[in-house]
Amino acid sequence: MSLRLFDCVVIAIGATLAVFVVIGHRSSPLTAAGLGLVILVATWLAVVDFREHRLPNRIVGPLAAAVTGGLALAALSTGDIRRGLVAVLAGAGLSGFLLLLSIFGDLGMGDVKFGYPIGAVLGWFGWNAILVALLVTTVGGALVGVALLVSGKGATYRLSYGPYMALGLAAGLLYAG
Fold first, then answer.
1. Is 127 left (phi over 0), alpha (psi -120 to 50) or beta?
2. Domain range summary for the chain, segments of one domain joined by +
3. pTM for this structure?
4. Which helix (H) or strand (E) holds 162?
5. The pLDDT of residue 177
């Protein structure tokens, strides 16, 4: 698998965002490291989605399991079980919302599954982090969609939504930090 210039740019942006997220959450080194890894995996998914128009289960599944395990450990270590449950419910809620968009729109099932770890991670930090992520995801995808329509490619181009979801995740975590 050869890396193209675009892939390298996305990876560089993702790595930079991961560093900023780690710095923003440095008061808890273990949390910071975990969030940095989540951003790096989300970046990997963004590259794959842009190239292949799919978010593979072999990546999304382990990410979701790791996020769930990390949230369980965080909830137990802080004694804040309620916060952990809210985070998991936020992930399930975001995934359910994306499922509705998939049924009534043109969102892929990979995006639906990717919604769980995004919503769960951001749910740990509260609803404002989720709202920031949704705003950045929606505006980012919409701007590119409008640009495609203006260029005349909008009717034939399949827009990968995973990169905008990853960007929204990073924005939500930066906000939370």
1. alpha
2. 5-176
3. 0.91
4. helix 162-176
5. 85
